[in-house]
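Entry 12.
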Amino acid sequence: MTTGNTSHKHHIVAHYWADRLRNIATVMVIAIHVAAPIAHAPTDIESSWWWAGNFWNSLSRPGVPLFVMLSGFLLLGRDYPLPAFLKRRFSRVAIPALVWMVAYSIYGFIDKNSPATIWEALRNIIVSPVHYHLWFIYLIIGLYLAYPILRPWVKSASERDFGYFFIMCIIGTWGYKILATFFNLHIGIYFELFTNNAGYFVLGYYLGTKVAPEMESENEKILPWRFSAKQLGYIGLALIALGTSGTGLATYVVNDGYQAGQEFNVFFYDYLTPNVGVSAIGWFLLARFTMFKHHLLDIEKEFAAASFGIYLAHVFVMDWWGKCGYWHSGQHPFKGIPVLIGLVVSMTFMFVMMLRVLPGGKKIT
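Predicted 3D structure (tokens):
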């Protein structure tokens, strides 16, 4: 697949795997919110209950990086006139975000009397994510603001340019965080362009544009892989296994000897860590080189179209199940977590699909 004059056929092929990966990432985000209460706040990290929560949480951590990488692939690969891009993108994000922020503000007031006033609610929309999962809105808006600068660069960047960028991102994000957290060593250099999620954003474009030798390519600046598509699929699986196990085991090691009441170290659950990044790359490669051959099923198309709405609405459904008395810890979480994930995913999907048939429903989902 190419970045520029891609044929209609190749656009469709790319759309299949990208939508499937978006659906996987959507389920992952819900899985994080279901598993995190057990994984983040254990009473005994030696228990099978915590290990179950740790497993599901570790497996799902790439969800947010995958959303960022997909955005990078889909946006940086196309040229948009700046005014049209900003108008289209911000309307697609800002309108549903504001609607759901108001909804969660009302929910918070009814449930916990917070926010207590309209002024507090308005202030929260500006300075905080209103509800814990809505922080992603602020992230994606920041990436949209960077698009007009990054798009011309990736269009002309060579393999060496990308290599330099990713090395600096590794130092400025992964390296900086590790040195500061575990060694209390703060690098004095300001890695302005190489921190936080900019690396994932550009990485999505790079990995989505790079092809296997047997695939067609018109992009001479990004060289093909030396591995076949089948081999890249296996490499993806290996990276998923490595990243997931690394997340779970590293979290255990840094909390070895944990006692109830202590502060639990969740560093390796962070999205901007090497272990989660490796796993996210694995999922991206697996989807890119193994999930492109078959047409999307109707339910896959509908789920992908509703994915943003599912992300916005799922906390309501998750909380509803909790208030009904059904939660992941009602049974052993190795089984209880995936059951609850399935319930929340299916119920939220149906709820969002009902919203989408109403007048204006697609604009807020």
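Annotation: Residues 8-364 form one domain. The two ends are 30 Å apart (CA to CA).
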